[in-house]
Amino acid sequence: MIGCIVAGLVVMALYFSRTYGNRKANICYGFLLLTFTLSLANNLLHQKVSTDFFFLPIWYTFLFGPLFFFYIKFMLYPAYRVRFSDLKHLFLPILQASFYWIVFLQSTERKLEIHEQLYLPWFKTIEGGLYILSFFGYLALSYRYLKYKESTLRISGFPWQRKKIKWQKVYVRVLFLLAGLNTFYILTDFAAYNFLNINLYNIPSFGRLIDLSFSVVLFWLAWKGWQWVRSKKHLAAVAPELPSEIAGFGLQLDLLAITQKRYLDPELSPDLLALATGKTKSEIYQEIKKSGFSDFHLWLGKYRLAEMEKRRTIPLFAKYHAISLALVSGFPSKRQFYRSRENKEDIVRAIK
Fold it and tell me: How far apart are CA 336 and CA 297, in angstroms?
């Protein structure tokens, strides 16, 4: 279980510092791993049966669903901008956090009283029920978004886009199963306490099973997140396909970037190009520098800036903010867009 916590923190740091993929999606996934890690740590501390660990304000289970939902939403629609109406998703998490912070600041005697008279008989049951409804509800919404996006890609999408959706759908299905395992233990605890007057947390083995179910979900999130970023198996599945008759490494790189508009993919990285070309990342960087670009992002920026110019002439994108237009054109973040725009003259000069 400690290993799962460490894994969660490592992959969380990876997503917070990641320069590929939609920045907002990366942040959401990083916070998702953080909240799961804190929740598991809270369970382990609570087992010490000390009032010092009661109501630690690190239990944010109501954030699981919204964070995962917005991770999927930003992955599918990178130009989506958070609106005031989205604050409704924070209603339950804010209530939950407020409760734990307020009670945590009480005296030890008061915390013990609240634990015995309010938390165990009432609050724990209500919180567990809302957590189950919330998490499964957001998973269902995420899956619905994926299916809708998949249906649109059948008409106008590219194979690499459909592959990414397929991976995400499998991801959500497994989460449904793992969340179901965790739900089984929550419902078992509820039934035992309310109908048999048995507190299963007094049985050490049951507490460990609850932690194990949480650990499995956290491990899946961390492993899947790592796989999405680092796994050669995953990268090979979504790597560009290189026409065998193309000769010349520089030409290969240019064709790989524009074939099926791969520059629209914010996940496109030197690792993907290395798998497609059979070259090393070092060789790719050297070739990019030979073509006049100082780094990989600026090299891709030439395609993405050109895509922005094309889309400006399309009525559908006429009202798009510059940042939104940049994100749908493949830029992973505002920072990368600003860098490319600031170096636009150098990019034009390199192309010439």
Answer: 7
